[in-house]
Amino acid sequence: MAGVVVVGSQWGDEGKGKITDYLAQKADLVVRYSGGNNAGHTIVYEGKKFALRLIPSGIFTAGEVIMGNGMVINPKAFLEEVSYLNDAGINTEKIHISDRAHVILPYHIKIDALEEKLRGESAIGTTGRGIGPAYVDKYDRCGIRIGEFVNEEIFKKRIHQVIEFKKQLYPQLNVDADSIFEEYKEYAKKMKPLVCDTGALLDEALLNHKKVLFEGAQGAMLDIDYGTYPFVTSSNPGANGVCAGASIGPLYINEVIGIVKAYTTRVGAGAFPTEINGNLADFIREAGHEYGTVTKRPRRVGWFDAVVVNQSRRMSSLTGISLMLLDVLSGIETLKLCTAYMLDDQKIYALPSTVEELERCKPVYEEMPGWKEDISNVSSFEELPINCQNYIRRIEELVHCPITIFSVGPDRKQTIILKEVF
């Protein structure tokens, strides 16, 4: 059996969609195991750019795709995405939705906005799509799961129960159970044929030696346990989330590929030790088109941070790294690599657990000469300028993990494989 996990190993937006799409060409199934429609990814397929939020990137090439039980799914957003793909001629009948995934409903979105407003200056900077409140309901045991959602009788009963409960917690919550039920029962009818026990489906596939690709959402530094809490998402987007989010055991996983930019970006609030400002940040942002797929917010830009990637390697047991957007750095005279942090008067090599400490961290930099050459058309490691080769090799040393893939542009043909994973 062959189980390969693709995980974002910084703060998200590393280019997971492209690598998942590339590897999906050899996979029989592609599984997404966490997150919701706050996690956008962009795919270039047959010369056309697609922006997906919920449906796994493997929809373009894999035999089948699974939306796992660890996801939170907005039915309206899902069906809009299905229509978007169908209009482009993409077959969506091969989607399987876990009956144990949780449903995002309108009250989750309203609670998300309400709580962000109440936080004031301490606002997390969520996308406002109800992700956090849906996960809260999951662990508070008042969530509605897909299996209940597609059973009209159960859904009607549950939506009234939950909204009555929510209004006691949030007196200002202005939602009507009957109107939500009438609208969403129609979405449920459309989704019902796709719903099944995806854990059993996946187990059968792996026992029959199928090639399975597990697709993470967002990035490891947004992990609810190991990320820069509280400026994180509400799930485990690293490989540490696969088993719970896809209903499999750890022995099914053979390879874990960490997707890493050749620099670092972050969206929203939170500590960012290697952040760059000014003209250089603008240059990288524009060259890399660093704007959120979902929110269109400009991403914050920083130098490559080996402390962050090492933390990701540890929590996901990375077996290889895919280094993305290497071409964006062409033309920068001197590049910096963060090798450690100074926390007050102590040099540290791992992220502290508190935001207050992380905000005090100062990056320890190592400088390397850049390259001027356009590398967007190279097809091998040997064709790269020597300074670019040295940059890659130094990153491997700093993060204790081989770079098995590198990318020099958005197209599939601009992906260079140094080691096959399937």
UniProtKB/TrEMBL annotation:
Keyword Membrane in annotation: no
EC id: 6.3.4.4
Subcellular localization(s) per the UniProt record: Cytoplasm
Sites where the protein binds Mg(2+): D13, G40
Residues that bind IMP: D13, E14, G15, K16, N38, A39, G40, H41, T127, R141, Q218, T233, R297
Catalysed reaction equations from the record: IMP + L-aspartate + GTP = N(6)-(1,2-dicarboxyethyl)-AMP + GDP + phosphate + 2 H(+)
Alphabetized InterPro entries for the sequence: Adenylosuccin_syn_GTP-bd, Adenylosuccin_syn_Lys_AS, Adenylosuccinate_synth_dom1, Adenylosuccinate_synth_dom2, Adenylosuccinate_synth_dom3, Adenylosuccinate_synthetase, P-loop_NTPase
Top enzyme class: ligase
Gene Ontology CC terms, in alphabetical order: cytoplasm
Residues reported to bind substrate: T293, V294, T295, K296, R297, P298, R299
Domain of life according to the entry: Bacteria
Alphabetically ordered keywords of this record: Cytoplasm, GTP-binding, Ligase, Magnesium, Metal-binding, Nucleotide-binding, Purine biosynthesis
Listed pathway(s): Purine metabolism; AMP biosynthesis via de novo pathway; AMP from IMP: step 1/2
Cofactor(s) annotated in UniProt: Mg(2+)
GO MF annotation: an example: adenylosuccinate synthase activity
Function: Plays an important role in the de novo pathway of purine nucleotide biosynthesis. Catalyzes the first committed step in the biosynthesis of AMP from IMP.
NCBIfam families: PRK01117.1 (NF002223), purA (TIGR00184)
HAMAP family referenced in this protein's UniProt entry, alphabetically: Adenylosucc_synth
Family: Belongs to the adenylosuccinate synthetase family.
Protein name listed in UniProt: Adenylosuccinate synthetase
Species assigned in the record: Eggerthia catenaformis OT 569 = DSM 20559
